[in-house]
Write a structure and sequence with these properties.
The chain is of the alpha+beta class. The protein folds into two domains: 112 residues, Ubiquitin-like (UB roll); 130 residues, Alpha-helical ferredoxin (Fumarate Reductase Iron-sulfur Protein, Chain B, domain 2, Orthogonal Bundle), CATH 1.10.1060.10. It is 38% helix and 14% strand.
Length: 251
């Protein structure tokens, strides 16, 4: 059975993208170790409401590790102290009794703070709208199943499609690059015949939109792969580069 722990929380507060932010400090007492990180934040907000104080804002949705909404930097690490997990999958047993835990929003110029721990990640949506889709008619499931795809290609495509677009890669990268996100989206379609039809246009359009939105350049430090909750490989970045250069050569 998990023991209760007590700890100090330093939570970032900020009223908007242009407002000056600061940390507020809270003392948390006797929190069960099997409490999830987001449940712990719920407990803190309930305490603040009972004290007639303003609760702080954080993002969440599924709480099952598949939506990417719970985008927090915890003690300087994207999503917290576990690899291959989102913030909602972190439990308080991962922290030491008496620890000081610092919580911040994503730190990226392309993700401006909306309020407190919530950032605007619509830049990723704009990149997807630029080319992260197929417009070719694939008909019904039996028709799609009639197209032969090797198991290796199918598995590689599915591995890339596991990206949940949380933004940890860009927030972790020292350059603020979104290359791992873009590469995962491009790669998931590039390995399928349905995605090859628009392959050249897709790579150029998504890279152009990424640059337009102010994301930095990739220098292959591997930090994005290390912090990705779905452990997307930077090998997909190599494929994106090949797709992009091939498209440029065709032009």
């Amino acid at each position: 059975m998990d023991q209760n722990i007590s700890f100090t929380l330093k939570v970032w507060r900020q009223n908007g993208p242009t407002a000056e932010g600061h940390f507020d400090t809270f003392e948390m007492k006797d929190i069960p170790g099997d409490t999830s990180f987001l449940e712990m934040l719920d407990i803190l907000n309930e305490q603040l409401i009972e004290q007639d104080k303003e609760p702080f804002v954080f993002d969440h949705d599924c709480r099952e590790g598949i939506c990417g909404m719970c985008s927090l930097h915890i003690d300087g690490q994207a999503h917290g102290p576990s690899q291959g997990a989102t913030t909602c999958q972190i439990y308080m047993r991962k922290f030491k009794d008496g620890a000081t835990i610092t919580i911040e929003p994503w730190r990226s110029a392309a993700f401006p703070v909306i309020k407190d721990l919530v950032v605007n990640r619509s830049a990723y949506d704009q990149i997807l709208q630029a080319g992260g889709f197929i417009s070719v008619r694939t008909n019904s499931v039996p028709d799609a199943n009639a197209i032969p795809i090797s198991q290796a290609d199918a598995e590689e495509s599915m591995d890339a499609a596991a990206c949940i677009g949380c933004g940890a890669c860009a927030a972790t990268c020292k350059n603020g690059s979104a290359m791992l996100f873009v590469a995962a989206r491009v790669s998931s379609l590039a390995k399928l015949p349905q995605g090859r039809v628009e392959g050249a246009r897709r790579a150029k359009a998504m890279v152009a939109k990424m640059d337009e939105l102010g994301f930095g350049n990739c220098t292959n430090t591997g930090a994005c792969q290390a912090e990705c909750p779905k452990q997307i490989s930077i090998a997909h970045i190599a494929r994106l580069n090949r797709e992009f250069l091939s498209a440029k050569l065709e032009d």
